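Re: beginner question about structure tokens

> Can someone show what the tokenized structure looks like for a real chain? I only ever see the sequence side.

Sure, here's an example I had lying around. Input first:
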Amino acid sequence: MVTIYGIKNCDTVRKTLKWFEAKGIENKLHDFRADGIDAKTIEAWLDEVRGKVLINKRGPSYRNLGDDDKATLEQGGAAAAAVLAANPTVIKRPVVDFGSTRTVAYDEERWSELAGL
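And the corresponding structure tokens:
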């Protein structure tokens, strides 16, 4: 089963869910707002994909962060994961978890490859 992390009212997350459903790939949505997200999970994502990929610096959630939090995000590690856990809307969406691999952002080509389509 593929887990799609994001926010249910995000257009890109909705588009992602429709894509997986259309391909017949079993999936579930993990909504950051409703279900939360723990810092350990985010820290593992940061180790795997790096902050430049995971952090959405273009959105209002990032712009609304304080300078100290932004500096912490630049440093990475557990402290950055804690900031993201407290502000999950700063995470670029969707994060798609295939079990052994994660992707960030909308990427039909990569998903097809990982799903063996």
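Each token stands for a local structural state, so reading them left to right follows the chain. The CA atoms of residues 10 and 61 lie 13 Å apart.
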